[in-house]
């Protein structure tokens, strides 16, 4: 193999996928193999060491920043340098702890989904608790007597008022309430039709009143969703901006640390090279010179790199993912509002 290829790809979804081409290459090896794998934190020189082991100046991608260049597991099959009857299989793994390993958009979606799930759990538990007396009355046929519809509406209004008065329900509060009320509308309609204290005319008036109240609640729920959407976007935007600031800070610290380490290694290699040249070991000094030039190129690349564009470009993408998720949850089957 002239260059390494990906053996196992680490997808953004978290799934691991075997590369068919790499699998084919492995199955065609008919010699004994020596497998060397390396693991460790990101940007600690794993790929560099593997290239040295392969006797190559390049091969596995080298990362000159805090962003890991190796994603998943990469494979390089080469003749064994000392045992020609063996095949050397080098496995380079992605670094642990890469601050960009999981995209901001993916983190945002996970964080948001956790909030949604927790909100649904809290709201359902609250509704179930507040709805207890109402359900008991239905089972005991308390509302099947004359005047039962009025009592049912009073108890339902109490549940709604108590629910709206509770704080900390989260983003799905309106949806859970809406689902509950849609269920109770059917129950209320049946109670209304069996209420013998009402005339047919009064029943029609009550039906119309219930319809108007349902429309008003629907309108309030939509307004609440719009307000919550705007508030959530603003909060998430501030949170993402703070995360980006911390990423900038971490990047600059790591970049400076890497430059200092490289400068120290350059000085040490220059000393070794001078000593070898004095001793007439020019072939080894050439290898050191190549290593020095590689370190210098890394420092030059680091000086030219900037995180501003990359991190700033990530923010709209994160917010775009969040907005789409919010709209999908808040308005699952209706026209989405325009969000500025």
From TrEMBL:
The record's listing under InterPro entries reads: G_GB1_RHD3_dom, Guanylate-bd/ATL_C, Guanylate-bd_C_sf, P-loop_NTPase
Domain of life, source organism: Eukaryota
Enumerate the SUPFAM superfamilies for this protein.
Interferon-induced guanylate-binding protein 1 (GBP1), C-terminal domain (SSF48340), P-loop containing nucleoside triphosphate hydrolases (SSF52540)
> From which residue to which does any coiled coil extend?
198-305
Residue ranges occupied by any GB1/RHD3-type G domain in the UniProt entry: 30-123
Question: GO molecular-function annotation terms?
Answer: GTP binding; GTPase activity
Family matches, as Gene3D superfamilies: Guanylate-binding protein, C-terminal domain (1.20.1000.10)
Q: What Pfam family does this protein match (any one)?
A: GBP_C
Query: Keywords on this record?
Result: Coiled coil, GTP-binding, Nucleotide-binding
Entry's family note: Belongs to the TRAFAC class dynamin-like GTPase superfamily. GB1/RHD3 GTPase family.
> What is the name listed in the Swiss-Prot or TrEMBL entry for this protein?
GB1/RHD3-type G domain-containing protein
């Amino acid at each position: 193999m002239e260059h390494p290829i990906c053996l196992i790809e680490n997808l953004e979804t978290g799934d691991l996928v075997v590369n068919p081409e790499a699998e084919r290459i492995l199955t065609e090896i008919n010699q004994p193999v020596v497998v060397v794998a390396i693991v460790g934190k990101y940007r600690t020189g794993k790929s560099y060491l593997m290239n040295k082991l392969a006797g190559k100046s390049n091969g596995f991608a080298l990362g000159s920043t805090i962003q890991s260049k190796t994603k998943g597991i990469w494979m390089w099959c080469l003749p064994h340098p000392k045992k020609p009857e063996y095949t050397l299989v080098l496995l380079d793994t992605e670094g642990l702890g890469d601050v960009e390993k999981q995209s901001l958009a993916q983190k945002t979606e996970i964080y948001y989904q956790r909030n949604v799930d927790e909100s649904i759990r809290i709201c359902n538990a609250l509704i179930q608790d507040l709805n207890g007396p109402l359900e008991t009355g239905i089972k005991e046929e308390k509302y099947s007597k004359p005047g039962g519809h009025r009592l049912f509406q009073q108890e339902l209004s109490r549940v709604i008022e108590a629910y709206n008065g509770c704080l900390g329900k989260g983003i799905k509060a309106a949806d859970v309430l809406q689902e509950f009320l849609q269920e109770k509308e059917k129950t209320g309609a049946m109670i209304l039709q069996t209420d013998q204290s009402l005339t047919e005319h009064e029943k029609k008036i009550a039906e119309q009143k219930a319809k108007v109240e349902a429309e008003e609640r629907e309108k309030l729920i939509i307004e609440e969703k719009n307000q919550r959407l705007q508030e959530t976007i603003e909060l998430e935007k501030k949170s993402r901006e703070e995360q980006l600031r911390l990423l900038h800070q971490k990047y600059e610290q790591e970049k400076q640390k890497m430059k200092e380490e490289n400068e120290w290694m350059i000085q040490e290699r220059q000393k070794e090279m001078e000593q070898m040249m004095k001793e007439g070991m020019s072939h080894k000094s050439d290898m050191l010179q190549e290593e020095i030039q590689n370190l210098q190129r890394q420092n030059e690349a680091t000086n030219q790199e900037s995180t501003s564009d990359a991190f700033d470009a990530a923010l709209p993408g994160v917010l775009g993912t969040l907005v789409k998720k919010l709209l999908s949850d808040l308005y699952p089957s209706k026209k989405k509002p325009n969000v500025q």
